[in-house]
Design a protein that fits this description.
alpha+beta, about 180 residues, about 30% helix, single chain, binds coenzyme A, 9 strands, about 35% strand
């Protein structure tokens, strides 16, 4: 796969993003939830609702040529949406979108990012440096879904000082964030 480009989502992307979300849920989350719940999740939004999300939150799309292959947004401090077309999955598209969102969050001087992650997305958020806060049940389109509430603290580097960060055991360590180094 050639490298996807990431750009701001535009209202005109709403139809493509809606189709992408449906495909991502139907194909990539099959097995994570019962089939009827997956179908309810996949079909639970309109293109108008997606257009509204694009207009009122900070949304980004990943594109390959003309095709929209990924979509994510930042709503307050929450990474609310993160979907990648299954045909483009497993190749770092979600990471590229996430890194764009984290850079925006840092530019906005947010102290943390949160996520209500699906069981399918939880491992990716762990890879992005999030930790589990708790598990929860959320209702959507008439079904109930087990989700994982997650958070990532965003340390701020003082001028002339390396950012302090914590390793997987919660110990403070200095230097570049390994999650950000040498990525695709
Ligand atoms: C979850 C999803 C966004 C991942 O997209 P993707 O482009 O395939 O993810 P990437 O290739 O960028 O992988 C991101 C990281 O997560 C890791 N990862 C992804 N899926 C994983 C899995 N099932 N198990 C373990 N690690 C996984 C990757 O190894 C990668 O880590 P690295 O960058 O440190 O190497 C995509 O599968 C999807 O759209 N799922 C369905 C919808 C969904 O659940 N969305 C979230 C709603 S909260």
């Amino acid at each position: 796969m050639s490298e996807p480009a990431v750009r701001r989502a535009l209202p005109g992307d709403a139809e493509a993003v809606t189709g992408l979300i449906e495909r991502a849920i139907r194909i990539s989350t099959a097995g994570a939830y019962p089939a009827d719940a997956v179908e309810a999740w996949a079909t639970g939004r309109t293109a108008e609702a997606v257009r509204a999300m694009i207009e009122v939150t900070d949304g980004f799309v990943a594109t390959l040529g003309e095709a929209v292959v990924g979509w994510a947004n930042l709503d307050g401090d929450e990474v609310d949406q993160l979907y990648v077309d299954p045909d483009a999955g497993g190749q770092g598209v979600a990471r590229r979108l996430y890194e764009t969102i984290e850079a925006l969050a840092r530019a906005n001087r947010l102290d943390q990012l949160t996520s209500v992650a699906s069981l399918r997305a939880e491992p990716a958020f762990h890879h992005f440096g999030f930790r589990e806060v708790d598990t929860d049940q959320v209702a959507f389109n008439g079904r109930t879904f087990t989700v994982v509430r997650m958070a990532k603290h965003l340390e701020r580097a003082l001028p002339g000082q390396a950012a302090v960060r914590r390793d997987g055991r919660g110990r403070d360590v200095a230097g570049p964030d390994h999650n950000q180094a040498g990525r695709r």
